[in-house]
Amino acid sequence: METRVADISALIYAGIDEVFNAAAKMPRRKYYVNIVRVKPNQKKYGWYDTVGDLSAAEVHVEGSAINFDKIEYNNRTTITTQVISKGVQGTMESMEFDLENVVKKQFGTPLVKVMNNKKEKIVADVYNGVFTTASADGVYQASASHPLKNSSSLNSNLASGELGTTTFSDAKNMFNHIMDQAGEPFDTEPTHLLIHPDKIYLALQLINSNLMAFELSNNKNVMQDVFPVKVLQDRYLTYTAATKVSPWFLLDKSLDAGCVLQTKGGLTLKTFWDLNTLSYKGLAYEMYGAGMIAPGYGFVASPGS
Q1: Average pLDDT over residues 34-58
Q2: Are the C-beta atoms of residues 79 and 262 closer than 8 Å to each other?
């Protein structure tokens, strides 16, 4: 049987799949995994609805009609799954004479790295954009005026100012005033503080000091006595070095709200020969989309200034 160029990949380059898979399984710090909820979805579009809550219960007057509420969805958020890809190639000559596997390794760690970096940026951009991106209820995702379906009240998840003792406690207290779609108190509280890594020392001073941070007093630090939070970092959040300004977020990760990473399958590698150029090519791709759902719920955000 005659061996052709198209058969060389099976003889020489079969190990590239192993190089890629080994790189994909390598432990590496992933910021996005802690600030999203992964939602597998086989369809291109995912729809996430906020349901209008029932109005308050009433005292029934004998003989009177009972009020029946209509169940209806409100504020549909659509997340689109996109194909994210990156290719790499090596000529037949570079592959044949690549005795130290320098070229072949480009199909592994470097390719996986750029794919992971893209996902980090896409997720972080969802957070960075909450102050300027419209949500399904018609206002910005971080806004002081989120409308409610069955109430004239408004929800606010927009804080302001640099992370500090007052702004931190004020943002925590905002969760006490978030209402459901009928204007009734909504069971939510902050569980995590999300910051840029350059703010980690400031955050730890605020929540871990025995006394109130940055105060000339002997007041006990009670920041963690009410709504204790864990600190999360994401280096892909916006950070302005000149002014040291970066947004910060209080998250309620117990809710089915906030940032969703909608996925279809995982990271995949396809390899093939381009016989026109005698190049060996590898194509990595992944299908996902990210977005904030349930407008007004799941987080309180400050632009950091």
Answers
A1: 84
A2: yes
* Calpha distance 169→181 (Å, rounded): 25
| Burial (0-12, 13-18, 19+ Cβ within 10 Å), 187 | exposed
CATH number, domain 5-49+70-302, options 2.60.40, 3.90.1690, 1.10.540, 3.30.160: 3.90.1690
The pTM assigned to this predicted structure is 0.84
Q: What are phi and psi of 153, to 5 degrees?
A: -70, 165
Domain definitions of the chain by residue range = 5-49+70-302
DSSP codes of every residue in 26-48: S----SGGGS-EEEE-SSSEEEE
Quick one: pLDDT band at residue 225, thresholds 50, 70, 90?
confident
HSE-CB of 216 using CA atoms within 13 angstroms: 0
Q: Are 141 and 135 in contact (CB under 8 A)?
A: yes
Orientation angle between helical segments 109-128 and 15-25, nearest 10 degrees: 40
* Long-range residue pairs from 169-172, CB within 8 A, at least 24 positions apart, any chain: 169/223, 171/250, 171/300, 171/302, 172/226, 172/227, 172/250
